[in-house]
Structures are given as structure tokens and as C-alpha cells.
Design goal:
The chain is α/β, with parallel strands linked by helices. The protein has 2 domains: 18-52; 76-166, Nucleotidyltransferase, domain 5 (2-Layer Sandwich). Helices cover 33% and strands 14% of the residues. It contains 5 helices and 5 strands, in the order αααβββαβαβ. It has helices spanning 24-28, 35-53, 76-81, 107-118, 139-151; strands spanning 85-90, 96-97, 103-104, 128-134, 156-162. A 5-stranded mixed beta sheet has the order 3-2-1-4-5, with helices on one face. Strand 2 and strand 3 form a beta hairpin. Helix 4 packs across helix 5 (139-151). The radius of gyration is 38 Å and the shape is rod-shaped.
């Protein structure tokens, strides 16, 4: 066993400060100052509140059905015979086909094809668009075709989902 360490003696009496004579600064040095941490917390809170306000989701407004207009169910064959409808088919592999059997692989070609279908005389051309989307196609492609129809001035845009066994 070793002997206990002797107490440390101050070298001079001036090094010893009685407890009553200690200043306030010496006793506060031992505590952790929380003010900067609280400031950082409030800054983070303000940052997240400001950025959360800008994350608004975009949506497509769908008007309610008109009660005065009589809704009549029509088959695709009836709509194909109607000259007022352009029918666009979106298949499972996200390929876009038009009534003449041509494919439009890009958004620009979809716009060109819809403008051709609409015709030079906007008043006499078809004003309705029917999008037949297979259940496995991507939502992005469907929205792209709907937006293209809106861009060329189609007044009545409709969406229908179909199964591959329907064709």
C-alpha cells in the first residue's frame, strides 16, 4: 500500500484566496453558457418554418360535373365515329398512339400531332380529347398528354383507364 498524498501547500500566502473574497467571475467560469445553443436552436426553427411554407404541392383543378348537362354514357366506338373527339392511347410501355396508328415518342411530337388533329381551322376542328391510358403506364406520361391537349386548345379533355384485354 502506498501512503496517501500529502495536501498541496501554496507557495505563498498571496496565492490563497478565501472563499468569501472570490469574485463572481471565478465562480461563473465553471458553468456552461447555453445562450449560443439557444440562439442556434431558434435560428434552425425559423429556417425550417420559412422553408416549409414554400413546399406547396401543385394540383390540377377538376371542375365539378355540370348538373344541367345530361350525361350520357358513350362507347369508344361511338366516340371514334364522332368528329369532335381526338382519341389518344397510352400503352403500358408509355408509348403514345394516335387514331391514325402513328406513335409520338416525345412531348414535342405529341404537341405536333395534336395540332395536326386539331387542324388549321380551330373552330371547325375537333375540340375534345379522350386519353385512353392503360393501367400500367406512368402517371408522368398521362399528365404530359393532358397538358399537351390543354396547350393546343382542347376544350373538353377526358381521361379513361383501360385494360389490355379491352383492345
Amino acid at each position: 500500500m502506498s501512503a496517501p498524498n500529502p495536501p498541496i501547500q501554496p507557495e505563498s500566502p498571496e496565492d490563497v484566496t478565501p472563499l468569501a473574497l472570490r469574485t463572481r467571475d471565478e465562480s461563473e467560469r465553471d458553468e456552461l453558457d447555453m445562450t449560443p445553443m439557444v440562439d442556434v436552436t431558434f435560428l434552425l426553427l425559423i429556417f425550417f418554418m420559412v422553408t416549409a411554407a414554400f413546399s406547396l404541392q401543385k394540383s390540377i383543378e377538376v371542375p365539378p360535373p355540370d348538373q344541367q348537362q345530361s350525361a350520357r354514357a358513350r362507347t369508344i366506338e361511338e366516340l371514334e365515329e364522332d368528329d369532335d373527339f381526338v382519341i389518344v392511347e397510352i400503352r403500358s410501355d408509355n408509348s403514345v398512339f394516335f387514331p391514325d396508328g402513328s406513335e409520338a415518342p416525345s412531348e414535342q411530337e405529341v404537341l405536333v400531332k395534336l395540332r395536326e388533329e386539331r387542324g388549321r381551322d380551330v373552330a371547325a376542328g375537333p375540340s375534345s380529347l379522350l386519353v385512353l391510358a392503360y393501367g400500367d403506364c406512368r402517371h408522368e406520361t398521362v399528365v404530359m398528354v393532358l397538358d399537351a391537349g390543354n396547350a393546343v386548345g382542347m376544350e373538353d379533355v377526358r381521361l379513361a383507364t383501360v385494360d389490355e384485354t379491352d383492345f
